[in-house]
Amino acid sequence: MKITAFNGSPRGRRSNTGIMVSEFLQGAEKAGARTEQIFLSGKKIGHCKGCFNCWIATPGQCVLKDDMTELLEKVLASDLIIMATPLYVDGVTAMMKGFMDRLIPLADPHFEQDDKGGWRHLRRYEHNPEIMVISNSGMPGREHFQVLELHFRRMARNFHSTVVAEIYRDSGELLKNQVLILKPIISKYKRNLRKAGEEFVSSGSISAETITKLEKPLISGEMYIKEANKHWDRQLAKLRN
Ligand SMILES: Cc1cc2nc3c(=O)[nH]c(=O)nc-3n(C[C@H](O)[C@H](O)[C@H](O)COP(=O)(O)O)c2cc1C
Questions:
Q1: CA 156, 101, 70 angle in degrees (round to 5)?
Q2: How distant, in Å, are the alpha carbons of 16, 72, 174 from that of 140?
Q3: Do the Cβ atoms of 10 and 85 come closer than 8 Å?
Q4: Ligand 1 atom nearest residue 170's Cα
Q5: Distance of CA 77 to the CA centre of its chain
Q6: For the CA of 14, the nearest atom of ligand 1
Q7: Integer angstrom CA distances of residue 168 from 13, 68, 165
Q8: 8: Cβ below 6 Å to ligand 1?
Q9: How many structural domains does the chain have?
Q10: For residue 84, what is the domain's CATH number?
């Protein structure tokens, strides 16, 4: 199985998203997958111009000549793509959205109805990779990912694909926290991410038990907010002094 993760965090290699993806991919590799994490922050990806040349003049090929040419090939060569993004304004980052818009050469312009009667594009290629979503948010609470869940389901439907797994981590800023008391909690969480990777490659899904463990709050929401507010106060005080 070939798994390619596209990390849409502007923080790139220093991102919480990157921590989550790396651990998941480590587990996936242990179970026999070939994996790659691509940092969109290090790629040149122009905005889609909306010219539709990729549907008419040069079917399947974008007029923009940048890193997206290579990334489209990587998408098509994968069995699973991981759309990895921190939560920005309740959705994906601009970097991730720019990448998503540039996937449009993979679709055929014509329309058809899906089995529920909704309209979507025809597929251009026989094989489209399955989709997995990995995200983390600054705030505590699973509900923050509602928009993301729906967005990727709608996108997958249009690309004749399926969202086969999702890992959402609220209070994601804890992942890099060096406070001693948190270390065993974070280590356990990372172990579960590796387990999820192994499970996915060996069985095609992540067990409900592992998902429950991965969604368990790392600390209580109240405690997180209290510490986060103290952190912001300290940062602001530094500026005043
Ligand atoms: C522009 C911007 C918008 C954000 N919007 C949200 C948001 O809507 N909800 C939330 O919980 N966190 C939000 N965050 C916080 C990030 O999701 C959080 O810092 C996350 O841990 C960053 O992950 P990364 O290190 O992978 O980039 C936002 C951060 C930025 C910079």
A1: 95
A2: 15, 34, 11
A3: no
A4: 11
A5: 18
A6: 25
A7: 19, 26, 10
A8: no
A9: 1
A10: 3.40.50.360
Pick from 68, 3, 69: nearest CA to 37: 3
- Phi/psi of residue 98, nearest 5 degrees: -60, -40
Residues 110-127: tens digit of each pLDDT: 999 999 999 999 999 999
Please give the residue range of the domain that contains residue 211. 2-240
Question: E strands along the chain, which residues?
Answer: 2-7, 34-39, 80-86, 107-113, 119-123, 130-136, 163-169
Q: Which residue has the tokens 């086969």?
A: 164
Mutate to test the pocket of ligand 1, among 37, 88, 170 (most ligand atoms within 8 A of CB): 88
**Contact status, residue 73 vs residue 125, Cβ threshold 8 Å:** no
Is any atom of ligand 1 closer than 6 Å to the C-beta of 89? yes
pLDDT at 179 over 90: no
**137 C-alpha to ligand 1 centroid (Å):** 5
Question: Are 82 and 164 within 8 A, CB to CB?
Answer: no
Nearest to 31 by CA among 238, 203, 213, 230: 203
The whole model's pTM is what?
0.98
- CA-to-CA distance for 173 and 169, rounded, in angstroms? 9
For the segment 71-111, what is each residue's pLDDT rounded down to a tens digit? 999 999 999 999 999 999 999 999 999 999 999 999 999 99
Tell me if 138 CB under 6 Å of ligand 1: yes
